[in-house]
């Protein structure tokens, strides 16, 4: 039940380009370009995100992408 409440809020934060942990902008994080046209972003809180430059969307990184 708790996840049903949190998931839409986290999705909204990511659509706004903000961290799901502290709400700060993801553009402040350290960027690493990858071969497939995406960027690996390490945020100041330690969370890792992926940014797809084609669709201009953020998402949480999968374990195999870390």
Task: Compose a concise summary of this entry.
With 66 residues, this protein is α+β, with helices and mostly antiparallel strands.
Blueprint of the fold:
Layout: H1 2-15, E1 30-33, E2 38-42, E3 48-52, E4 57-60
Antiparallel strand pairs: 1-2, 2-3, 3-4
Can you describe this structure?
There is one protein chain. The protein is α+β, with helices and mostly antiparallel strands. The protein has one helix at residues 2-15, and strands at residues 30-33, 38-42, 48-52, 57-60. The protein has one helix and four strands; from the N terminus they run αββββ. The N and C termini lie far apart (28 Å). A four-stranded antiparallel sheet has the order 1-2-3-4, with no helix packed on it. Helices cover 21% and strands 27% of the residues. The chain has one domain. β3 (48-52) and β4 (57-60) form a beta hairpin.
Largest sheet: 4 strands, antiparallel
Shape: globular
Number of helical elements? 1
Relative strand content = 25-35%
Q: Any idea how many domains? A: 1
Low-confidence stretches: none
Looking at this protein, list some descriptive labels:
66 residues; 4-stranded antiparallel beta sheet; 1 helix; globular
């Amino acid at each position: 039940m708790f996840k049903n409440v949190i998931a839409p809020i986290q999705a909204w934060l990511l659509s706004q380009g903000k961290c799901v942990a502290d709400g700060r902008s993801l553009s402040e994080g350290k960027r690493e370009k990858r071969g497939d046209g995406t960027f690996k972003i390490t945020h100041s809180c330690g969370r890792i995100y992926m940014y797809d430059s084609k669709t201009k969307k953020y998402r949480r990184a999968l374990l195999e992408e870390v």
